[in-house]
């Protein structure tokens, strides 16, 4: 059985479905009520209640279910509780990560796939971003800061525990069940507006979007499948993999794809002129797992709008 922390969430639920389609039974670790969410009710899935920061509760999961692999997607970063002491919250985040490794070692798990982020590369580069590039060490935001810390810990802990810890640097991800708004890119807000044939509300973004703004955008069904492949592939030759489309997608590209599905959709973003584009090199992922994205921007837009119009929009 594969334990998926955050398995009821956005990327987690699609990872669970991909694992199930590959013949795996999954255990969802949830901090709150242990309920299998409706979108996963048709799958061989078990829900258990435990917090990764509570080692005893976490270890008890292994007494109920024979865990053979872990995909660690739960957010264990120090900002969810505004009233928490920031030092205590940071310690809890680190302890949660260490507990996952402790549990893996206790259960004899051979591999942990742990979510990292495209944000570790920073924002001042252009062209393809490969896993062996030097990373900027300055602090900009808690997410890339803690993910870089976890990646460094992964290398050390893999050496001393015998558990293979694989860092999955996940690119911008959109699709069914995603965040609205996503504060970092406009695609989800644009898709929701196209589905309801309305004007997009882009006020929730951290910066005003422009037509030329681009990033490596991966449809969540592909993200889940890539993470499942990283967990299930017999041999991985690297400790870190980009989980991405391998191409840059601009807001203008997204709008054009949405218009191909909903011709009446109108959104005119201001132009910022030519901007350097970056994307993640997925050569490692392709070579070691055979992964290829199944959704380009047009097919992703069509699938997402169909899902939203089926009554799934919030």
Automatic annotation (TrEMBL):
Domain of life from the UniProt record: Bacteria
NAD-dependent epimerase/dehydratase domain span: 2-244
A Pfam family of the record is Epimerase
Family membership: Belongs to the NAD(P)-dependent epimerase/dehydratase family.
What's the protein called, per UniProt?
Answer: UDP-glucose 4-epimerase
